[in-house]
Amino acid sequence: MEKEFVDFSSTIQHSWENFLGQLPAILLAILVFIAGIFAIKLFSKVVTKFIDEKSKDSIVTDFLVNIVSFILTIFLIIVCLGILGYGNITDKILAGTALTTFIVGFALKDIGENFLAGILMAFRRPFRIGDLIEVQGMRGRVKKMSLRETNIKTLDGKDVFIPNSIILKNPLENFTYNQLLRSEFFINVDYSEDLEKVMKDILYIINSFEEVEKNPHASVYVQEIDGEKIKLRGAYWFKTTDVNAPGNSLKSEILFKVIHYIKKQDIKIEENSPNPDDERKTVKE
Question: What topology in the membrane does the UniProt record assign (predicted)?
Answer without folding.
Answer: Multi-pass membrane protein
